[in-house]
Design brief:
The complex is a heterodimer of chains A (116) and B (115). Chain A is mostly beta strands. Helices cover 0% and strands 53% of the residues of chain A. Chain A is built from no helices and 11 strands. In chain A, the strands form 2 sheets. In chain A, strands 2, 4, 5, 6, 9, 10 and 11 form a 7-stranded mixed sheet that branches. In chain B, strands 2, 4, 5, 9, 10 and 11 form a 6-stranded mixed sheet that branches. A 5-stranded antiparallel sheet of chain B has the order 1-3-8-7-6, with no helix packed on it. The model of chain B has no long low-confidence stretch (mean pLDDT 92). The chains are: A mainly beta (116), B mainly beta (115). The interface between A and B is medium-sized, with 28 and 26 residues.
Chain lengths: 116, 115
């Protein structure tokens, strides 16, 4: 099956600093990647759709200046949480679209961000 | 506004019996539905899907039923196995007339299969 990796798997940072999370499709090219956020015991909330070579599309309520997304290649998308605050602490998951089908969306293992 | 809802946060079932997980949605534009399985600290894994033109899709022990008039779908697992213990998310997508490939997830149901 298709493999998507995320790095780091967990990160602890201080308030005010920025954190970058990488999402890589290891064995396929992904023109589209998605970034989700999951709060404890809650649903996965779509934050943004990342398209290779173009600007990301953010969901309503997601601050694009705070959550910077870069999809510079067909196998890599990055999410940078800028000026992190404790309320940004969450589980961030990316997915990569292998083919033009909804079921072909493969998820990474997630990144646990803790802001102190 | 939660467009996809899983009203049971948890479910406990005996090994060998049937597990039934339920999901309701509100957006009539949704035309494709998926079930994902998720272990703690891991990403979701795709299980099974169904298009709105069907009312049933079966894959081994997993069957998904769709009732469009009730805006309800369910996942049946039979027979249930201890390895099925995980959080199950239903997700919906509006492939036509809207943003394709976007998934809207429910809140998840924690399934515990007792040996």
């Amino acid at each position: 099956g298709a493999v998507v990796s995320q790095h780091p798997s967990r990160v602890i940072c201080k308030s005010g600093t920025s954190v970058k999370i990488e999402c890589r499709s290891l064995d396929f090219q992904a023109t589209t990647m998605f970034w989700y956020r999951q709060f404890p015991k809650q649903s996965l909330m779509l934050m943004a759709t990342s398209n290779e070579g173009s600007k990301a599309t953010y969901e309503q309520g997601v601050e694009k200046d705070k959550f910077l997304i870069n999809h510079a290649s067909l196998t890599l998308s990055t999410l940078t949480v800028t000026s992190a605050h404790p309320e940004d602490s969450s589980f961030y998951i990316c997915s990569a679209l292998r083919l033009a089908g909804v079921s072909e969306q493969y998820f990474g293992p997630g990144t646990r961000l803790t802001v102190t | 506004d939660q467009q996809v809802k899983q009203n049971s946060p948890s479910l406990s079932v005996q090994e060998g019996r049937i597990s039934i997980l339920n999901c309701d949605y509100t957006n009539s534009m949704f035309d494709y539905f998926l079930w994902y399985k998720k272990y703690p600290a891991e990403g979701p894994t795709f299980l099974i899907s169904i298009s709105s033109i069907k009312d049933k899709n079966e894959d081994g022990r997993f069957t998904v039923f769709l009732n469009k008039s009730a805006k309800h779908l369910s996942l049946h697992i039979v027979p249930s196995q201890p390895g099925d213990s995980a959080v199950y998310f239903c997700a919906a997508s509006a492939r036509y007339g809207g943003a394709t490939n976007k998934l809207i997830f429910g809140t998840g149901t924690l399934l515990a299969v007792q040996p």
